Amino acid sequence: MHELVIRRSVSFPDPLRVGRYKSNPDLGPRLLFFSGGTALNGISRALKSYSFNSVHLVTPFDSGGSSQALRKAFDMPAIGDLRSRLMALADESVLGHPEVFELFTHRFKKSVSKRALTSELETMVAGTHPLVKAIERPMRTLIMHQLGVFQASKPSRFDLRGASIGNLILAGGYLNQQKELEPIIFLVSKLVGVQGIVRAIVDGNLHLGADLEDGRSVIGQHLLTGKETAPIESPIANLYLSKSPLERSPVSTKLSKRNKKLITSADLICYPPGSFYSSVLANILPEGVGKAIASRDVPKVFVPSLGDDPEAMGLSVAQKVQILLRYLKKDAGTDISDDQLLNLVLLDAGEDTSARDLEDLAKLGIPAVALDLVSRPSAPYYDPHQVCEALLSLT
């Protein structure tokens, strides 16, 4: 097979390309996102209008919320962000399985007694709970089985209050598949009709660690985001993966051949909005990610988050770009040119800092363009369809 690289001018948005993709999303392009958390979920839902072929490599390093309870109970990777992205990409049309979607997005109430929740879980395992009973066989049987594995394996003190049923099903499937994530993610993708591909960046039980500029080390994603604990008070000097959740124990892990193939077959690679360190940079830490990105000659786009990011400690867009490139080159090699790893930054034209960012990025030699990407200037959120159409115009 021969590969030919063609350069062309781009209009934002490109009505011809956008219209073509919208008329037949089955044949839409393979946009690949490195992300975690929920920041990309709105864009993911909108993307289903244009392409059923997007790829989402998600971090399994979360250490907060209900994911943390499951990690402690079963010594497993975090699955909350994976479940969230699967649901964002699920087929919500009448041709999909809305009853499965409803079960996966259901959470046990926090105000109910532990005994009542244990009883409710038992009815789900038995198939008599209304949410489970509404699902047709054989999907119902598969779901009941995964929940049964979770029920039989959970510690007696496991607290079900606020737990996501989708997370419990994934945990049961993980345990049932000899502690492998990919088989159960594949199964759930089929159950809810995921219109795209969702995978963990690595199938390993690892944790995020950060060395701060003040000399301290912090282990645990939830201690970096500023959402469940007070924000860190010193900038991050070094991000790494740790074997232990309790002490600094840096470890290397390799990108799988299957995930490498997804990167090297992408039509566009995006470093999307999200927590800069724990969502975006965390995904490029595994060995082989930078090399795979550099080997693919397609648009590589950074869409920085809007608003405050407690992890980023006031970093400008240009500073984020420099840090992103530094981490990518740790794997790809310092001899790799910047444009092999990143060749466009998309900014919102309404941001007060966009003019300064454009100037700073120009000094770095990084192409950037400012577009109208926010539908409501008063809210620091991207309009999902406008971001999708900007990215699709590049393919």
Topology (elements, then pairings):
Elements: H1 15-23, E1 31-35, H2 41-47, E2 55-58, H3 65-74, H4 80-88, H5 98-104, H6 114-126, H7 130-133, H8 139-153, H9 165-176, H10 181-192, E3 197-200, E4 207-212, E5 217-219, E6 236-242, H11 257-264, E7 268-271, H12 276-280, H13 289-295, E8 300-302, H14 317-332, E9 344-348, H15 354-364, E10 368-371, H16 384-392
Parallel strand pairs: 1-2, 1-7, 2-3, 7-8, 8-9, 9-10
Antiparallel strand pairs: 4-5, 4-6
Helix pairs in contact: 2-16, 3-9, 4-10, 6-8, 8-9, 11-13, 13-14
Protein name: GAK system CofD-like protein
Pfam families: CofD
Organism: Roseibium polysiphoniae
Description:
It holds the Pfam family CofD. It comes from Roseibium polysiphoniae. InterPro entries: CofD, CofD-like_dom_sf, CofD-rel_GAK. This is GAK system CofD-like protein. The protein is α/β, with parallel strands linked by helices and 395 residues long. It folds into three domains: 15-59 and 254-392, Rossmann fold; 65-200, no CATH class; 207-252, no CATH class. 39% of the residues lie in helices and 11% in strands. It has helices at residues 15-23, 41-47, 65-74, 80-88, 98-104, 114-126, 130-133, 139-153, 165-176, 181-192, 257-264, 276-280, 289-295, 317-332, 354-364, 384-392, and strands at residues 31-35, 55-58, 197-200, 207-212, 217-219, 236-242, 268-271, 300-302, 344-348, 368-371. Strand 8 (300-302), helix 14 (317-332) and strand 9 form a beta-alpha-beta unit. The longest helix has 16 residues, at 317-332.
